[in-house]
Design brief:
Length: 219
């Protein structure tokens, strides 16, 4: 009888430790933080949601650490996962990288550092989308990573074609985001238009493929 694979591995341990690293910075600057810390900003870079400094400094990193553990277990438990795929390893480092970036950024802004969050965060998101778009076409059918809709999960052909198309689309749109931000365009309309394109257009493409396959099967 085949033994189940262990869900605990080096990547889970290392990414969890990386998630905990911002706590060191939080402890160092905690005394200097204001009682209320902005944890969310609108499109203009203005704070629109606040939390206690204890939650911002320690609660958020710990929540992201827990989320990292959940993500690691979900990816490892996927019976169709391919551990050789680059996008699989990128996904496993996603939460740790975000925590290492977002927690210090949030606290530095609270300390009054002149950071244009309305530029920095959209640029980081755009670069992340570009990286994902580059690897989407290489993503094999699985249950946790990729465009998981009924038609891609039901057909390896649909999955492959949809992810090739989505990879091209995500790359083009993310480059448009980056160029727009470098030209000092407002990030809000860029993302309001672009993000639905990234989500909806591949789904429509997948459905058209599905309908085409159905039609060809009945002829």
């Amino acid at each position: 009888m085949k033994q189940p694979r262990s869900l605990l591995d080096r990547t889970l341990v290392v990414t969890t430790l990386v998630c905990l690293l911002p706590l060191v910075f939080s402890a160092l600057v905690y005394a200097e933080l204001p009682d209320r810390v902005a944890i969310h900003f609108n499109a203009a870079g203005e704070p629109d949601n606040f939390a206690s400094k204890a939650f911002a400094a320690f609660g958020l990193p710990l929540l992201l650490t827990l989320l990292n553990v959940v993500l690691q277990v979900a990816l490892k438990a996927d019976p169709k996962r391919d551990p050789k795929e680059r996008i699989y390893h990128i996904s496993r480092w996603l939460i740790a990288s975000l925590n290492l970036f977002l927690t210090p950024l949030t606290l530095l802004i609270a300390l009054g550092k002149p950071i244009e969050v309305q530029r920095v965060v959209p640029m980081a998101v755009s670069i992340l989308l570009l990286i994902i778009g580059n690897y989407l076409p290489k993503c094999k059918q699985n249950y946790t990573i990729g465009i998981k809709i009924p038609w891609t999960l039901a057909s390896e052909y649909n999955w492959r074609k949809t992810h090739r198309f989505a990879g091209w689309l995500w790359t083009v749109v993310s480059i448009a985001f980056i160029l727009g931000l470098l030209l000092n365009l407002d990030a809000a309309p860029l993302f309001i238009i672009g993000i639905p394109i990234l989500v909806i257009v591949p789904a429509i493409y997948s459905f058209i493929l599905y309908r085409t396959e159905q039609t060809s099967d009945t002829v």
